[in-house]
Amino acid sequence: MREVVVREAGAERIPDLAELWESLGRHHASLDEVPAVRPAAERWARRQRQYRQWLSDGDGHLFVADRDGRAVGYLMLTVSDGPATWEVGDRVAEIETMAVLPDERSSGVGSLLMDAALAAADAAGIDAVAVGVVHSNVGAIRFYERAGFEHFYVEMLRFKR
Length: 161
Known about the structure:
single chain; Aminopeptidase; five-stranded mixed sheet; alpha+beta; 161 residues; globular; 4 helices; 5 strands
């Protein structure tokens, strides 16, 4: 098995991410205490549009991990204006998506992707990087904590019943 290589990529790599996005959707559907996920084709169509928009605006940075010519993980990082309330810098970054194929998890792919994203944020002079995680996704929370993320903001949803 060859080494994993992480590179920043453009919109031309978006089609290579479909399998990864779907594996993330299956994972989200398996979590406790979350709403149902959208149908796979709808999820992917929506997310592709977002990725293309972020990349065309210059606000997105796509990092793809390849092993033997196959995308085995990716991370989409966006950059935007800092919040009005919190003194965390004029520009902040957010990890919008990080997906690693199930058979590649715990192999270091996620750490390589995180290192690339954090290096890009550092190079851009960004001090704060955010990530949203489903509260019952314990493995992802532990991963982000190991990468230095701390609990900061709780987002709550109210559903019309």
